[in-house]
UniProtKB/TrEMBL annotation:
Cited CDD domains: AAA (cd00009)
Domain Sigma-54 factor interaction residues, every copy: 326-550
InterPro entries: AAA+_ATPase, AAA_lid_NorR, GAF, GAF-like_dom_sf, Homeodomain-like_sf, HTH_Fis, P-loop_NTPase, Sigma_54_int
GO biological process terms on file: phosphorelay signal transduction system; regulation of DNA-templated transcription
Region (Disordered): 290-315
Species this protein is from: Bradyrhizobium shewense
Record-level Gene Ontology MF annotations: ATP binding; sequence-specific DNA binding
The keyword Lipoprotein belongs to this UniProt entry's keyword annotation: no
PANTHER family linked: TRANSCRIPTIONAL REGULATORY PROTEIN
Keywords linked to the UniProt accession: Activator, ATP-binding, DNA-binding, Nucleotide-binding, Transcription, Transcription regulation, Two-component regulatory system
A Pfam family that the UniProt record links to this protein: AAA_lid_14
Name used for this protein in its record: Transcriptional regulator of acetoin/glycerol metabolism
């Protein structure tokens, strides 16, 4: 098909979509153009790059697919090697058409992919970019070639994309494999061949993903017209998994698989022969009719006795993942997580310090999840929210009839409930002095005396406490027991206010995605969000964006949708202002103290002194 000028292309798209002309575009392309014009209300003449995520955002999006990507990578690398010479770039995208893995071809072709952002992080969903290989294959869940001016937007006409959707071990759409070329010398036929190669490679990826997922099960390969299917079954010959083809071939559903249905109801073969050297077997249906020659492979655990032990790389997942996610790219927080990691499973108390809404509770939960106590209780109490007598009873417990109004059978108390796990005491600075003394005794003796009890109860707890107050100063001034303060701060972690975070923009983007996933931010809205000081920190940002997501029109959050009340103008806080200025200067200069000092017109030594005095976290 000859390349058309942009305006001709627009006229052509309009006539196809309005069914005024019978054009030479295939019916799938014409259907997609109609979806783009009428359903997504896209303009074929619009120009501009695709939406692209930052590195941190890509990491966040890719996280749930980490195991799948790892299992598919060897095949993806092979495909990229085979197609590199022909100038194709190769990408793996998630179901929303965001590229999460890419290999660019040689230097001659790479520049154009970079210029047009055909790389990791870019999103090619049909709803944004119009008809294109990735977006359309994912919308239709079918392989497709979108050749040059079959693209909806004229700006993509230099590219040809061939894409095969990728299905996971349960037959669900997990993403798609894309190959894109901008070589003018390659015609449609060449791209059709490359699409066939890509579809084959994608089937092998699906096999690797299935086998990796069901590595502890027996795997039967069942021949079929539309490609062979994979069935996983356990030692009792109950089906535990089936790939998309096997489901279609044998009529298996999630419900049947979840019920642990017998393999013999679907496939029969000689199990003794299946354990032979090559695992090749004759397969029959339950009614005795032949299915053809198949293959059975034993579980990996069985194979590991004859093979060198294969590393189980798809085993979970770093316990510290949640903490790393919360730390984002803030250097101070990253250092704190490193320190937490280095103390390992030692039962060191942690004191979290930070303003309201910075995430002290979620951070405490993440510390618990990263510890060897993760499977035991996490028990939390907010000391500011209760009167002294109630904290006493809640925390330390009491015997039956210990006081008027007590529960008839007494109460174990939160400390005992947290035995073996973690106790989180929020707003510890508000704990009355008498209770501080009792708590100190618990920490020193590792036992609790419930009110009215005749003997103590031994406990093993990890204590995490949190405060927005300056406990050190309170201890100096007698408002908090100094010995308890030192006991609590085995490790002190300062959670910065949102306005101080070096990765503030990342956090705003991430929370916008979570709270208003179908909206985008206008430039003015973005400027306001980035400049605001957030007295309520993450909690406030979440609320603001949640509300904005509800009021936004046409999927765009504007500044009018943002409820950001003026803050901090009434009482100038000189220390906070100085702190904020220094933090901002450090942020601007990538945490480099010398450069920040120069910008602030201070000597390096003075800046260091102020950093120490104001307890500012730096990357150095
Ligand atoms: N790093 C983060 N990224 C995104 N959201 C976060 C982050 N940290 C906290 N939040 C969100 O901010 C809100 C407040 O968090 P949390 O309750 O842990 O704060 P807090 O410091 O304990 O507040 P308070 O001192 O008022 O009890 C929650 O909705 C939480 O999910």
């Amino acid at each position: 098909m000859a390349s058309l000028s942009a305006s001709n292309h627009v006229a052509r798209v309009l006539s196809v979509a309005n069914q005024l002309a019978d054009v030479d575009a295939s019916s799938r392309i014409a259907d997609s153009w109609r979806r783009c014009l009428i359903g997504h209300k896209l303009d074929p003449a619009r120009q501009g790059p695709p939406q692209t995520l930052t590195e941190a955002e890509v990491r966040h999006v890719a996280e749930p697919m980490e195991q799948l990507i790892r299992l598919a990578t060897p095949e993806l690398e092979d495909l990229a090697r085979v197609l590199r010479e022909a100038g194709y770039c190769v990408n793996l995208a998630d179901p929303s058409a965001t590229m999460l893995w890419s290999r660019l071809p040689g230097p001659a072709d790479t520049e154009i992919f970079m210029r047009w952002k055909v790389y990791t992080g870019s999103n090619f969903s049909e709803a944004f970019e119009g008809t294109n290989g990735l977006g359309t294959a994912l919308a239709e869940r079918k392989p497709i070639l979108v050749h040059r001016d079959e693209h909806f937007r004229a700006q993509w006409h230099m590219f040809s994309c061939a894409v095969a959707p990728l299905f996971d071990q349960a037959g669900r759409l997990a993403g798609a494999v894309n190959i894109t070329s901008c070589r003018e010398d390659l015609g449609r036929m060449a791209h059709q061949l490359a699409l066939a190669v890509t579809m084959e490679a994608t089937r092998r990826m699906e096999g690797a993903i299935f086998r990796g997922h069901f590595r502890n099960a027996w795997i039967a390969t069942v021949p079929g017209d539309g490609g062979s299917g994979l069935l996983a079954y356990d030692d009792d010959r109950r089906i535990v998994g089936a790939c998309r083809s096997a489901r279609a071939l044998l009529g298996l559903t999630d419900g049947l698989i979840a019920s642990g249905i017998d393999l013999s109801r679907y496939v029969k073969f000689d199990h003794h022969a299946a354990r032979g050297a090559d695992g090749v077997v004759e397969l029959r249906r339950a009614d005795g009719s032949g299915l053809g020659q198949g293959h059975v492979a034993p579980p990996l655990r069985a194979r590991s006795s004859v093979r060198p032990h294969a590393p189980r790389r798809d085993e979970p997942v770093d316990r510290f993942d949640a903490l790393h996610r919360l730390a984002g790219r803030d250097p101070g927080l990253i250092r704190s997580v490193k320190r937490l990691r280095s103390i390992g499973d030692h039962n060191l108390p942690v004191l979290l310090h930070g303003e309201t809404g910075v995430g002290k509770d979620v951070f405490a939960r993440a510390i618990h999840a990263a510890s060897n106590r993760a499977r035991s209780n996490y028990v939390a109490l907010n000391c500011a929210a209760m009167p002294e007598s109630l904290i006493d009873a809640e925390l330390f417990g009491y015997e039956a009839g210990a006081f008027t109004g007590a529960r008839r059978d007494g109460s174990k108390g939160l400390i005992v409930q947290a035995d073996g796990g973690t106790l989180f005491l929020d707003e510890i600075g508000d704990m009355p002095i008498a209770l501080q003394t009792r708590l100190l005794r618990v920490l020193e003796n590792r036992e609790v005396w419930p009110l009215g009890a005749l003997k103590p109860v031994a406990v093993d707890i990890r204590l995490i406490s949190a405060t927005h107050r300056d406990l050190g100063r309170m201890a100096e001034e007698g408002g908090f027991r100094a010995d308890l303060y030192f006991r609590l701060r085995g490790l002190e972690v300062r959670l910065p206010a949102l306005r101080e975070r070096a990765d503030r923009d990342d956090v705003i983007r991430q929370i916008a995605r979570e709270e208003a996933p179908t909206c985008r931010l206008s430039d003015q809205a973005w400027s306001q969000l980035a400049a605001y000081s957030y007295p309520g920190n993450m909690r406030q940002l979440r609320h603001v964006l949640r509300l904005a997501g509800c009021t936004a029109e046409n999927g765009v959050i504007t500044d009018a949708d943002l409820d950001l009340p003026p803050f901090g103008k009434a009482e100038p806080d000189l220390e906070a202002a100085e702190r904020a200025t220094i933090v901002e200067a450090l942020r601007k200069h990538g945490g480099r103290v010398t450069e920040a000092a120069r910008a602030l017109k201070l000597s390096r030594a003075t800046l260091y002194r102020k950093i120490k005095l104001l307890k500012i976290e730096t990357a150095q």
